[in-house]
Amino acid sequence: MVKKHVDLPEGADDSGEFSHRVGKAGGTGNPEDYKTDGRLKNSVYEAEMERLQEQLVLLQYWIQSQGLKVLVLFEGRGSAGKGGVIKRITERTSPRTVRVVALPKPTERERTQWYFQRYVEHLPAAGEMVLFDRSWYNRSNVEWVMGFCTENEHEEFLRSCPEFERMLVRSGIVVIKYWFSVSFDEQRRRFEARNAEPLKRWKLSDMDLAEHELYVKYSMAKDNTFQYTDIKQAPWYVVPSDDKKAARLNCIHHLLSQFSYEDVAPEVVKLPDMKQMPYVRPPIQDQTFVDQRF
User: Fold this and answer.
1) What is the model's pLDDT at position 39?
2) Which region ranges are annotated with the description Disordered (predicted)?
């Protein structure tokens, strides 16, 4: 079902457009908030992230109070920043309300199931927001690029995925899809940084190297995926992510903007006094403690 192959110009990102960074006049509108390379200063980033994370907590309470079912998909190339934004979203929220799903490779049994079956059990119930760190779009991206699925399986996915997502929306699930877009040069820089740091080298997998080599084919996969699955009921939102910190702020800001939420955080409660009971604890010397090194 791939319609055409368009060679990307040097320096273009995976959306077919030349990569760019926010200029000093963009974003906050204050030139002093940006470094000379156009990236946000750390102090500005940290202050805005703190504000957005507070709003995410308020959104969490709203989702609980309204019984909303929210599903957020994060897709994109390796090192594009999906994991980083998911980490910031969940940093201050409750894992009982905001869950992360990052499925491993399917088992032999799962390979014989209906393709969407292993994902369905992780969909949100009322009062939950589920974040998919990669999702069923593995079929039209990683699997197709690496040859892990057949052409028939790929074509069937592109036919059935829009209908599957329309079914989710009709059932009352809010479906939000983000694609993190990173340029070839920036992806290479991030892979080189991982390779140079022993404590981060585990992040650089054989799959990452193969995907980097097949950058253009991955662009074809993304373009074809968008052609079939960028639907009105569940559109794609592209997050330019050459500047990781700006990408995190932009994505979280957009996520919050999708809801007309109100502050329904619980009021301050009075902590109870300890209830006295006729109980004598055993000697503390009977317990084994860790060494007090600090």
Assistant:
1) 86
2) 1-37
